[in-house]
Amino acid sequence: MSDMNERRGVPEGWDRSGLAPWTYLNDELAEIEKDKLFRRHWQLACHVSNLPERGSYITFDMAGERAIVMRGEDGQVRAFHNLCRHRGSRVLDKKRGVCKKVMICPFHGWGYNLDGTLRSPSAPESLPKLDSVEHGLKPIELDIWMGFVFLRFLPGDQPRISELLARHEEEVTPYNAEEMVPVYGGFWRQEMAVNWKAVRDVDNEGYHVPMAHPGLQDLYGKNYYDEPIVNGTNRSFAELTESPSHLWSVRHYKKILPDFPNLPASSKRAWLYIGIFPNTVISFYPESAAFYQEFPLASGRTVQRGATYRYAEESRAMRLSRYLSERIDKLTTEEDTQLIKWTCEAMESSAFDGIILSDREYGVRAYHDKLRELLPVMAMPEAPAPGTVATVNARLSEERADAAE
């Protein structure tokens, strides 16, 4: 990697410290994060190909929210809160499926049309007259980019996802991601006994790749660089090396990977990652695309979720390439999981007094700065008194707003 790439977007004399350990251990802060970061920012729910026919749906749970994403009878993709307007039951309880005509709540049998409007309550004579729209399933804001379906549960300052990702559009368009299809039909999901920010910390830098990821080092070596977060997104790019590889999966991936006429020369043998604040990464490989994300359950409990997509017309060489890249990714995920656990354990140690970031880890600092911008309480070196984290954060936010006027 050249010196220019090592210092891409890195200022002189920057603060090399990170977030205080308490921010990884505090359940009060985790609840504020759910509201301010996760419910008010775009979340990737699925791809349009997960909804192949009219009435097909997926359910998506995150940070206390429950959503239905469904393709209506008119072919339009919509999202609703998965809460019956009667008693709040889940209307659909499966992870995915197809509703031919109507969604029926399993609690009392209220029915909803595929556009979310109320079709009929059970025993309507026992109820006041209900309006089909007013008492239909509550809609959720939705936006689609390159086939990926994003939701926002509560209003926020983040631009629409299509605007947010506009700067990446020229580079991503040749992959034809909107025409891809699911590899396994559904989504993978795992729970981890870590803080969600520790997942981002490991993912936001490539400094650890040579030591911690033999597969990735064998795949692209020094031909990798990270760009720090800018206006809510960040980018990482890795060009495959043509030098001999030691690992079986990497060696055969480089050998089997076919030519992709749809891609420019710079992308034919390269891996691209687009990060979306606060918690999502979409990866684009020559033969496939994928996404992964994480959500907090509590300060020390995190859910990871993701899916992989492929070209609808897939040759044998493309399929084998995808199989090999998935093997490389699986090993990388296992290695990262161990690193994440170790960094979280460090936060509880009496000997831990903070981190010292390399220039190659400036992406971690830039991400932490964004967190402190939105949640100023996270800039405090010590945790506020128990029961006061939300109050202190609100006061600091008000003081910042007053100072900006």
Question: Can you give me a brief rundown of this structure?
Answer:
The protein has helices spanning 3-6, 27-38, 161-164, 169-172, 196-203, 209-212, 214-220, 248-256, 265-268, 316-346, 362-374, 389-404, and strands spanning 43-47, 56-62, 65-71, 77-81, 96-98, 102-104, 111-113, 118-120, 141-145, 148-152, 181-182, 188-192, 224-230, 233-239, 270-276, 280-285, 288-298, 301-310. It is an alpha+beta fold and 405 residues long.
- The N- to C-terminal Cα distance equals 44 Å
Average pLDDT reading: 94
Q: Main beta sheet: strand number and arrangement?
A: 8 strands, antiparallel
Number of strands: 18
Q: What is the overall shape?
A: globular
Output the CATH topology of the largest domain.
Naphthalene 1,2-dioxygenase Alpha Subunit, Chain A, domain 1
Radius of gyration: 23 Å
**What is the CATH-assigned architecture of the largest domain?**
Alpha-Beta Complex
SS content category: alpha+beta
- Percent of residues in helices comes to 25-40%
Beta-strand residue fraction: 15-25%
Q: How many helices in DSSP terms?
A: 12
* The CATH class of the largest domain: Alpha Beta
Low-confidence stretches: 1-6
Number of domains: 2
Taken in chain order, the helices and strands follow as: HHEEEEEEEEEEHHEEHHHEEHHEEEEHHH
Oligomer classification? single chain
Q: What would you note in describing this structure?
A:
The structure is a single chain. The chain is an alpha+beta fold. It folds into two domains: 1-41 and 166-405, Alpha-Beta Complex (Naphthalene 1,2-dioxygenase Alpha Subunit, Chain A, domain 1), CATH 3.90.380.10; 43-155, Rieske Iron-sulfur Protein, CATH 2.102.10. 29% of the residues lie in helices and 25% in strands. The protein contains twelve helices and 18 strands. The strands form four sheets. Strands 11, 12, 13, 14, 15, 16, 17 and 18 form an eight-stranded antiparallel β-sheet that branches.
